[in-house]
Amino acid sequence: MKSIPDWENVKPSADFSALPAGGYVAKIVAVTDNEKKEYLDIVFDIAEGPEAGRFSDDWGKEHPYAHHFIRSYKNDAKVLGMFKSFTNAVEESNSGYSWTFKEQTLVGKLIGIVVGYEEYDNDRGERKTRTYVKSLKTVQQIREGDYTVPDLKRLPAVDAPEGFTPMSDDELPF
Q1: Using CA atoms, how far apart are residues 92 and 43, in angstroms rounded to an integer?
Q2: Could you give the residue ranges of the DSSP H alpha helices within the chain?
Q3: So where are the chain's domains?
């Protein structure tokens, strides 16, 4: 095996644990506008509490999809209402800030997020769970505990294929 340069300074990986479901004060660290599809992709990090700076390491920087949320601004009453709720929460959470339709002004701003877990099927057909941003709040609402932690968002159960008959433990060949 070849020698690895600077081996003494390589940090061993720590056990990974997902961000617990709950409310967090987050800092917006990057915003990308997808004009064609009319949405903002907003990357955040945790700004306060024991999880502060959770995504500021190399892994977090290389995996922004693991700590982001999307806000659409399509010209639809429901969608625009949700976008307005987002911009209002940012304004109320950052004294003196006013939304001006310049998405880069969001970088560095605080916002309250409520994180939950949802099931998904990976590309190997395995059922897994991941975090998602359930709702956005003001920083004050998060600090005061004015939010509800969502229950696990489950996928529908998968029906057995036609003709499948389950075996009892007594019938198993091992």
Answers
A1: 19
A2: 58-62, 77-93, 139-143
A3: 18-171
Per the CB < 8 A criterion, the answer to whether 101 and 67 are in contact is no
The tens digit of pLDDT for each residue in 105-146 reads 999 999 999 999 999 999 998 999 999 999 999 999 999 999
Give this prediction's pTM.
0.80
Choose among 59, 62, 72, 48: nearest CA to 18: 59
Residue 108's Cβ-count burial label (10 Å; 0-12, 13-18, 19+) is exposed
- Type of residue at 90: V
Q: Which residue has 């095996």 as its token pair? A: 1
Paired strand residues for 116:
132
**What is the distance between the alpha carbons of residues 89 and 33, in angstroms, rounded to a whole number?**
19
